[in-house]
Amino acid sequence: MPQHKTIERKALIVGIVVNVIQVAAGMAVFFMTGLKAMFLDFSFTAISVLSGLVAVYLSTRTVRTTERFPNGLFALEPIYAICKAIFTMSLLVYSLIDVCRVAYDYFVLGDGERIVTGPVVIYEVLTVAICFGLYVYYRRENRTIRNASTMLTAECKSTLVDGAMSFGIGAVAVFLMLLPAGGPLDFLHYTGDFFITVALVAFTIKEPFSVLKDAFIELVGGVHDDDETNAFVEAEAQHHLPENTEYEQTLIFKTGMNYTVDVYLAGTGETIDVANLIECKRSLEQALKKRLHIVDVDFVFN
């Protein structure tokens, strides 16, 4: 397995183990308190566990080539990111509808149950610390492979959302513990769950949209727009030009962890040596693999 894929797979497995522990603890706290925001919290983490298992499987499969798929199955990586983003947005919308129903029952029908915070504060403090650590870990591992992993990017943003949720829920739990009963804000003891969930959804909904946008661009063949990568590829392309050619431009396409580089050239002589063309293609690919690792170069003549 290529080194980049090994790093990606290791990071995903670490995330799965950490998230399984969080899900078990979150479920326990939810059943103890009945806090709706806790359902959103542990369900979000459960999605990370399931998607992580899928990601680990894909990490070992997408790089493999077959007669039918000679270039691998890298398109499955942005598809994975798209599916995860859609699931995440669906969960956020479901949770929003659920707490709106609770708020309606209290404010309109006068029916509601007092929120029990109990062990929520301790759980959320630990969860915030764990999510922050996992976020830093994902980000560091992805940076070691030049942010090439679409799946690690999705997991990184997902963990950031999870940590933000835990922080918000913990902050509200502390506030409700300190809020005296019978005061003008007593209604928060019944509907505080609604306000924090709405705030969390508003704050975090942009992250899955961001993942969805980037993965869609990869899937439909959009040009890669990372300035640092583009500058590196352009410089290397100009150092590996075939004889009797002139450099025009470079277009980079990224699908999952696979890069395709189209180097546009113009002929400056009457003939072009095919052997030299192939040699330059291979030498350029070797130079680019130092950073991009999985890359295919095509010379394009207008």
TrEMBL record:
One of its GO terms (molecular function) is zinc efflux antiporter activity. InterPro entries: Cation_efflux_TM, Cation_efflux_TMD_sf, CDF_Transporter. GO terms for cellular component: plasma membrane. It is a multi-pass membrane protein. Keywords: Membrane, Transmembrane, Transmembrane helix, Transport. The chain crosses the membrane at residues 12-32, 38-58, 79-97, 117-138, 159-181. GO terms for biological process: intracellular zinc ion homeostasis. Pfam families: Cation_efflux. SUPFAM superfamilies: Cation efflux protein transmembrane domain-like (SSF161111). Residues 12-219 form the Cation efflux protein transmembrane domain. It is found in: Membrane. PANTHER family: MITOCHONDRIAL METAL TRANSPORTER 1-RELATED. This is Cation transporter. It comes from Bifidobacterium callitrichidarum.
